[in-house]
Amino acid sequence: MLFNSFPFLFLFLPASLAVYFILGRLGAPRLANASLALASLAFYGFWRYEPPGGGEPHRLYAYVALLCASTAANYALGSVLQTGRRGGLLAAGIAANLAVLGWFKYSAFAALTLNAWFHLHAPVPRVILPLAISFYTFTQIAFLVDASRGLARELSFGRYCLFVFFFPHLIAGPIVHHSEIMPQFARPEARRWSFASVAAALCWLSIGLFKKVAIADAIAPLAGAVFAHAGQVTMIEAWAGALAYAFQIYFDFSGYSDMAIGLGLFFNIRLPDNFDAPYRASDIVDFWRRWHMTLSRFLRDYVYIPLGGNRLGGFRRYLNLFLTMLLGGIWHGAGWLFLLWGAYHGALLVICHLWRGLRKPLPEALARALTFVAVLLGWVLFRAAGPPQARQLLGAMVDLRSLRWDRWASGMQPSHLAALAGLLIFVNLAPTTKRWIETRELTLGDAIQVGVLFSIGLLLMRDVALHLSQSEFIYFQF
Predict the structure, then answer these.
(1) DSSP secondary structure code for residue 156 in this structure
(2) Category of 277 on φ-ψ map: left (φ > 0), alpha (ψ -120 to 50) or beta
(3) pLDDT tens-digit series, residues 324-370
C-alpha cells in the first residue's frame, strides 16, 4: 500500500484513525496502541511485488513474519541490554541484524561478483528484497545501542511493536530513536482528536502529495528517456537529464518526508525532520545535514563516531569519513554504482573538510553552485542502470562536440528546459514546507490553497493497481 493511493487515503487512514481515537476516548490506551500497531502491520502486508521485467504482481505475506521475528528478537535482546548486562550481546545483536539485511540485500550481488571474478559457477540466491528492511533494521540497531547506553528503556512488547511498526516511518524513514517517539505515545493527549494537529497534518500531507504526483512523477519520464538513450544524447540533453533526475528524487523524497510528518501528526506524533532544502547547501557537509537527515545522523552516531570520529588524528578522521560514506552508499543498494556513489561522496567530504581547514571560504553563491553541480554528478552514478550507462552520460556531459540545439535523441524539447530552469529557481527560493506551515497561523485562504493542492494531487494520482512501479517512492527500493 502506498501513501499516494486511493485505498490508503480513503479507506486505511480513516479507519485506523477512527479505531485509534475511539479506543483512546473509551479509556483504553493499550488497546488503542495495539490497534495502531496491527493496522501498521496490515499496511506493511499490503505490499505488492512486481517481478523485474514484468510478470504478475503478487503479495509476499511471508515478509510480515520476517518483520515480526526481527522485532521480537530485538525486543528480547534489548530487554537484556537494558539491565546493564552487555558482554558480547550488543555486538552479536548488531551482527545478527546486519547478517539478515546482508542476506536479503547483498547475497545475489556477492554471488554474481564472485562468479565473475573467479570464473565460478556457484548458484545465485533468488531472494526478493523485503520492503523497508534497511529502515527497520537500522531503527532497531539504534534501539539496541541506545538500550545498552541507558538511553532507551522499553518494558512493553506491545509498545515496542508500535515503535517499529508505526506506518508513517516504517517504509522509508525517517530512521527514528525510541526516545523520540514513545514518550509522545505515552502522553494522554496523543489519543485525543486535535483539530490543530489535523489541520497541520492535512497541510503536510497535501503539499507532500502534490510534490510527489504533480512534480516527481511528472518529470520521471524525462529523466528516464535521457538515461535510456545515454549513448546518443547531446551535451544539453545529458545535463537536462541529470537535472531532471535530481529534481525527481528531490521532490519524490521531499514529498514522502512531508507526507510522513503529516501522517504522524494525524496521531499527534511529530516525527523528526528528514529533509531541509538540500540543494541550498553551501558545501557537501551542509548537504548531508539537509538530505536524509536521520540517515546522516545514524551514520554519524553509529558508524563514524564508533570508528573513532575525529579523535584519532587527521588521517584517521578523513579515513573514517570516507568509510562511513562508503557504507552509506552500500546501504542504498547492492551494486557497484552505489558503492562508487558512496566513495564519491566520501571523497567530497574529505575535500570539503580539507578546504575548511584552509579558512578560505568561497562566496556564498559560488559555494552553492559548486555544491549543487557536485551533487548533480553524483546523481548520475546513483540513477544509472550500470557503469556503461553512467560512463556514457557523464561523457556526454563534457563532450563539447555534441553541443547542439537541433537534435533531441531523447525527445527533449525547449519547453522541458524551461521547466527545469523553473524548478531550479523554485528549490532555491521557495519556502520549505516546515517554514510555510509552522511559522504562520493558518487562515481560510491557506486552507483553500491546501485544498486546491490536495485536489490536484488526487486528480493526478495514479491508481496503484495499474501503475505500481511508476507510483512507488524512490526510497522504497532501499
Answers:
(1) -
(2) left
(3) 999 999 999 889 999 999 999 999 999 999 999 888 889 999 999 99
Residue type, 333: G
Distance CA 420, CA 242 (A): 10
102 CB-side CA count, 13 A: 9
C-alpha span between 79 and 303 (Å, rounded):
23
- Please, which residues have CB within 8 angstroms of residue 339's CB and are 6 or more apart in sequence? 326, 329, 330
Alpha-carbon torsion angle 385, 390, 391, 395, nearest 10: 140
Query: Which residues are designated catalytic?
Result: 332
Taking CB atoms within 8 Å and a gap of at least 24, the contacts of 316-319 are 317/353, 318/350, 318/353, 318/354
The CA-based diameter of the chain, rounded to the nearest angstrom, is 72
Residue 107: which residues within 8 A CB-CB, separation 6 or more?
A: 125, 127
pLDDT in tens, 232-275: 999 999 999 999 999 999 999 999 999 999 999 999 999 999 99
pLDDT at 131: 87
